[in-house]
From TrEMBL:
<feature type="transmembrane region" description="Helical">
    <location>
        <begin position="65"/>
        <end position="85"/>
    </location>
</feature>
<dbReference type="Pfam" id="PF05230">
    <property type="entry name" value="MASE2"/>
</dbReference>
<protein>
    <submittedName>
        <fullName>Adenylate cyclase</fullName>
    </submittedName>
</protein>
<dbReference type="InterPro" id="IPR050697">
    <property type="entry name" value="Adenylyl/Guanylyl_Cyclase_3/4"/>
</dbReference>
<dbReference type="InterPro" id="IPR001054">
    <property type="entry name" value="A/G_cyclase"/>
</dbReference>
<dbReference type="Pfam" id="PF00211">
    <property type="entry name" value="Guanylate_cyc"/>
</dbReference>
<feature type="transmembrane region" description="Helical">
    <location>
        <begin position="139"/>
        <end position="159"/>
    </location>
</feature>
<dbReference type="InterPro" id="IPR007894">
    <property type="entry name" value="MASE2"/>
</dbReference>
<dbReference type="GO" id="GO:0004016">
    <property type="term" value="F:adenylate cyclase activity"/>
</dbReference>
<keyword id="KW-1133">Transmembrane helix</keyword>
<dbReference type="GO" id="GO:0006171">
    <property type="term" value="P:cAMP biosynthetic process"/>
</dbReference>
<dbReference type="InterPro" id="IPR029787">
    <property type="entry name" value="Nucleotide_cyclase"/>
</dbReference>
<keyword id="KW-0472">Membrane</keyword>
<dbReference type="GO" id="GO:0035556">
    <property type="term" value="P:intracellular signal transduction"/>
</dbReference>
<feature type="transmembrane region" description="Helical">
    <location>
        <begin position="106"/>
        <end position="133"/>
    </location>
</feature>
<feature type="transmembrane region" description="Helical">
    <location>
        <begin position="40"/>
        <end position="59"/>
    </location>
</feature>
<feature type="domain" description="Guanylate cyclase">
    <location>
        <begin position="244"/>
        <end position="379"/>
    </location>
</feature>
Amino acid sequence: MMSAPADLRNASSCAGKSLAVETGGSTVAIPPMPDYNGRILAYTSAAVIIVSGVLQGVFPQWTLWLVAAALLWPHIAHAISRRTFLRQSPRIRQKMLFADCMGGGVFIGGIGLVAIPSVSVALMLMFSCLIVGGIRQWFFGVGFMAAGVAASVAVVGPADTLQSPLLTSIIAIASTGLYICVTAFYSHQQARALMLAKTQIQNQREQSIALSHKLSKYLSPQVWQSIFTGERDVRLETQRKKLAVFFSDIKGFTELSEEMEPEALTELLNHYFNEMSEVALKYGGTIDKFVGDSIMVFFGDPTSRGQRADAFACVSMAIEMRKHMKIMRQKWRSQGIKTPLEIRMGISTGYTTVGNFGAENRMDYTIIGKEVNLASRLESLAEPGEILVSYETFSLIKDKIMCRDKGEITVKGFAKPVPIYEVVDFRRDMGPNRSFLEHEHSGFAMYLDSDKITEKERESILAALEDAADRLRREEEDA
């Protein structure tokens, strides 16, 4: 019979060692009653019961030999579990407890099944089995104990009477109660320590999640997700992939920076980046970097929906950015910014080298290659509000997006002139049934995307347009 501190599965296989849970920088001690001490307590209780029974004549004289066995077995079990090949067994505690159950069964049969001492010993064994290994351990422990009882009764037979003297019964009950109380106290201490450890681990987990979300602001969401889910290792490595690469900048930003105060310029630029980032993430783009007023985005890594879908998503993002820029320009104009800011964009599709570049202690997840240079070149050649794409991109999107041939350009790194195309709009939005309309003059701007307008908003817009039309007509008549 041995003690039963709460088992931490893989942390408690060595008898006599205190258990501890590491929680970040601190260690929460879990004070167990070691198996060695618990077994000594249990077998000493059994020895006291034997001596009491022999003195009162309820047990035969030969059972005094069991006292010596009870006092020696805890030391033998300790040596077996610490100094033999069994010490490497992950379930040494359960196996040693099976031996205790077998020995306890032999003892119960040896004293002739005298009721209260037998029940007391059986209770200590079953209590230990339940705490150490649960129902499964209890079930097998009872089996081993029953086998020991059957073997012993077959040899010595049952006692003449199953009743025991009052003093022997009191000693048996008191010994069992002491063992159970001491073991339960240490189990309670372990449970409290484990709850404290669980609370600390939960707090550290919440802190780690909060910190990871803060760090995620410095990475593209897709890259952050792949790192924190374990899909990607943080080491210097690259691979070749076919990606759609996007560059954009603001035409007129240099002139605006000369007119505005740095604080106001910073607020405007951050607002622009925030709005464009939301559009990029909406279409699944990996935001590479912001440089000045430029944005670099690529599609196809860490996740890809296929070359055609990646290219289409990239160009769709560019079209929405161009439309969204009209809304932002009106908002800036209402804030007193008169310089007409327009976005220009370039897109190229092809094989690039993507991955972690830099040093072991400072990495940058980015892409390099001639397709990156081509996308940057297309962006610098684009007119305000224009989206230029390479031939590779055009071939992947031409069935869904209308493009206009813009001839060829010479780009460093390409042996032949490169055909380029201007993105006009989605084919579904061309013609009289198009959902997007825009018209802009000095003193007037209209941006309409009918797919995004609710019925209630449609009535309000119609009323505003009718009011504006009536006013223009009256002013024309007065003129």
